[in-house]
Every structure is written in structure tokens, then in C-alpha cells.
Amino acid sequence: MPEKVILLVNLGSPKSPSTSDVRKYLRQFLMDERVIDIPAFPRWLLVNGIIAPFRAPSSAAKYRSIWTEEGSPLIALTRQLARKLENYRGMPVYYCMRYGVPGPRQVMQQIESDHPEIKEVLLFPLYPHYAMSSYETAVEYVRKIWQSGQYPFHLRIVEPYYNHPDYIEALSNSILPWLDDDYDHLLFSYHGIPERHLKKTDPTGHHCLESENCCQVTSPAHAYCYRHQVLETTRLVAQKLKLSEDRYSISFQSRLGRDKWLGPSTASVLQQLPRQGIKKILVVTPAFVSDCLETLEEIRQEGRNTFLEAGGEVFEHIPCLNDHDYWVGALVQILSDQFEI
Questions:
Q1: Tens digit of pLDDT for each residue in 261-273?
Q2: Tens digits of per-residue pLDDT, 284-301?
Q3: Three-state DSSP string of the chain
Q4: CATH assignment of 4-161+325-339, given 3.90.1230.10, 3.40.1190.20, 3.40.50.1400, 3.40.350.10?
């Protein structure tokens, strides 16, 4: 009888691409205090009075443009990854979502019912990098559900794996075949976050964004610094692929609101590159393990249009790791290194 279960947690998705379901999803997502980190009442007014009502119709149209026969791509790909991982490792594998369904309470109850002998649930956040609006909120939400449910099993959590050799190997392998094509530049587009989030998660209180090269100066803050971690992922992958510094760069996408976010923005970079003579680009989105709205619509559709309208000629989006065999193998190795499974 198995003594451990693997539980994958991903972002989530609306139940359907209808405006009403997207509005409901936006409310749940944006009311998260780690996503929009302002006091509860102003956040409620902003989300329910402005963002959700006005963004829901346009967001629903975007979801419809990527919806598949299996439903949400992110949900379908997470389900496929769970099945593949279970077959590969021979351990029970479940998945849940931070927002939407299946939620962690439902899934933990199912785990307890299916495997009453289980002693440990190994939570694997499908976020390689630490950020309060992604990794942290998913982990703390699942932890809260676990604590409130008084479940008989322990919950153990995989730490961010942005620099794990097997993750770097898997990400590099996903990019490598695309480098055989004629291209001018490889753009690493990461999900953006407000700069204030870096300062909030800085345990030292005086390192992040305090100097121009703060991400290169060793600090305990790096364990919680999204910017440092994405820079390190990029450096390691570029080193693995033997990319010269002039052949790749970093940008940040998916901005919301008027606060200062990490830059440069992906949209502005895609507009500028053709003016610099870069007409053929590859775009990879390493902050996302599973293809979703932010990769399939924001990058593959909107990003392509932005680049081509600015004078670009060839735009290719490299798919996320999804359920590739090398990612399944890397995931098992990350678990093994942290928990000796």
C-alpha cells in the first residue's frame, strides 16, 4: 500500500469561457490579497465595481479563443501531467487548483477516502519561481485547507526549483529543437509582478531593488526574490544552450494596474525588436509550466500580432513543458531530491 501521494497544484481556470463564469473566476482570483495586495474594502470595490464587470466580457472572448474540446488548456494539461506522472512513478498522483475547481479541500477529501493509510501528501506547486502572487498564495491556501481539515496525513511542500539541474535540463530540452531554425533572437518572457511584491517578500527588509546589481549579490532574500530567480533560470538555460548574450533577453508580461512593475514589458520589447533589425524571434515563457491564457492568447496570439505589426517577419512561441517526458522525469527527480521518494 502506498504511504505517500503526490498533489500537483496549479493556478486554475474559469469553469467555462462564458462571461458569467469568467467574471466569477476573476472575482476569486483578484480578491486574493496576495494578488492585489491592498486593504480588503478598497480591493473589494476595485474588483467587484471595476475590474470584474468591465474585464469579464473581453477576458471571456480571450478564453474562447483558446478553449478546447477538453475544456481549459491549463486544466487539461495538468490532468495529463498527473496521469503521466502516476504511470511513470507508480505513486498515486492528484491535482488541484488555487482558484476554481478542483479545489484542494475536495481533492484532499478524495485522497483520504481513496488512501486512508497515506502518511504524507507531497505538494508540488507548478510554479518554478517564488512569488507571493503565484507560489506563495498556492502553497499557503493548500496549507490552510489542510490545517482546517484535520487530515490524518502530513503535508510536505516542494520548494521553488528554478535552478534545479533537472528543471534546467528539461527547459533547455524544450527550447533546443527550435534553435535549429533560422532565428535572430530568443526572448524569455516571464509573468510580471509589481516591484513592491519583491520588497514585501524580502526577509532582510533592505536588499531587493536597493541597488542596481542586487540580484547578483548573495543574500538570504534570493530564496524569496522572483526577479533573482528568473534571472538565474535564464542564465543557467543560456549557459546550457551556449547562447551568446546578444542572442537572448528577458521581459515581463501580464501587467495589471498602474503601479510600477518589473520591466521591460514584453509588449514594448516586441514592438522595439524589429526596429533593431531583429525580425525573426522565438519566445519562451518559463514562469508557466502549463500552457494557459497567458501563453496561448497573450503571447501566441497578441504577442505575434504586436511583433508582426511592428515589422517583424517570423514569430514562434515555444510551448511550455506541459506533459513532456523530460519534464515528468525532472519532476520525479526534484521530488526525490527533496523527499527521497
A1: 999 999 999 999 9
A2: 999 999 999 999 999 999
A3: CCCEEEEEEEEECCCCCCHHHHHHHHHHHHCCCCCCCCCHHHHHHHHHHHHHHHHHHHHHHHHHHHCECCECHHHHHHHHHHHHHHHHHCCCEEEEEEECCCCHHHHHHHHHHHCCCCCEEEEEECCCCCCHHHHHHHHHHHHHHHHHHCCCCEEEECCCCCCCHHHHHHHHHHHHHHHHCCCCEEEEEEECCEHHHHHHCCCCCCCCCCCCCHHHCCCHHHHHCHHHHHHHHHHHHHHHHCCCHHHEEEEEECCCCCCCECCCEHHHHHHHHHHHCCCEEEEECCCCCCCCHHHHHHHHHHHHHHHHHCCCCEEEEECCCCCCHHHHHHHHHHHHHHHCC
A4: 3.40.50.1400
Q: What is the tens place of the pLDDT at every residue in 26-76?
A: 999 999 999 999 999 999 999 999 999 999 999 999 999 999 999 999 999
| pLDDT single digits (tens) 205-220 | 999 999 889 999 999 9
Sketch the domain layout of the chain as residue ranges: 4-161+325-339, 165-318
